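Listing 4. Sequential folding, example run.
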Amino acid sequence: MPGSMLSVGVVAATAVLAVGLTTAGAAAVFGQRLAGAADAAALAAADAASGAVSGAPCERAAELAAASGASLETCEVIDLVATVSVGGRFGAFPAVASARAGPPP
């Protein structure tokens, strides 16, 4: 009987570790997707600010963020440089990613 209790403990510990690592991996993937949405939104805003595409810069950024499943939190355009923050929720936890786009200094 002592061997079966040890086996149950090992299996339970392995299951807890697997669930924890899976959750951490999913959070990392979500963070990368959110960062990609921020990059796309910043590029769209910078393109609109430069006149390369039509529309208001922050409206274009909001469109791209929504297409990526995120929401535009902040948008600031100074000259041709756009800085945006997009947000989303990973389960019960809010997450925010920021990006900046524009011509080189």
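-- end of first protein; second protein begins --
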Amino acid sequence: MSYMVGFGNKYPTQLHHRGASIPSIYNHSAKIGCNDGYSTWYTSSKPNPNTHVGAIVGGPNSNDQFTDSRTDYSHLEPTTYINAAFVGSVAALINGQISKEENCLHLQMSNNYDNKTTSNMAYI
């Protein structure tokens, strides 16, 4: 089991993340209000419609068990304090070893429903 979304054959599919768990405007053009997001999408047992590739979640519980359910926010939320530590560690490892053009972390967000892909570039 990988706790990094999109890495390996088995990874979390129900992140506790609004952008990942609510459909894209390209697929669901009707307005989704704040309460609609909670009442309609939060409790859904389906995988998130948007894959938040590269996000790292909290991992297993104290009994080394992992339940892929977005309602389990303490284990399925891609928090800043987890992801920042990973990015900072990787940045320290590659610092000075490659050129500025190669020193680019390419994060990709894929939309599972319409196969549209958007990319964001972050320089370390």
